[in-house]
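call fold(seq) -> tokens
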Amino acid sequence: MSEAALIFRAEALRSRETQRPSHRAARASPWWIAGAYWALLVLVAVGLTAAALIRVGEVAQGPAVVRDGAVETVVPAVFAAGLHPGMPLRLTLRGHRPMTVAVTGAGPEVASAAAAGSLLRTAVGGAGPAPGALLVVRATVPQRVAEGAAGTASVQVGSQRLIVALVAGLVSGDADG
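ret:
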């Protein structure tokens, strides 16, 4: 080794002997980063647990009219398999409190909102059911409701866990775009 290398080596060794040893690693981030990390993990766990436990309803909804002592409403035909006599139908008529009545039957299927409107003898559209084939649903009506009263009707045809609905929405959203 050269004389210059020995001088610097000796200097480095003396410096190292005089320094206090530090066994603590340098902190690269503030204290709150670790707390935020654990809080985020807890929130994700709570969200996944809630999504696995909470159930959301699948509701068929459409315009309704009282005709011949019965309520007639149209809903998208995709709900036909889930509609059965005796199911509760929530009926909201103008000028009346919301009420629950029983479904007595479903059918016929109509091709469009115009055909449904002529069957119900009222305008069907706007905030009504989605475009496509429609299904006429009939339900009982209380005696105190006037003939021709109009409003909306909804019936829960199924339910599923929230996480299933979210994943299905993501998958169908990918197919659309």
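The chain has a mean pLDDT of 80.
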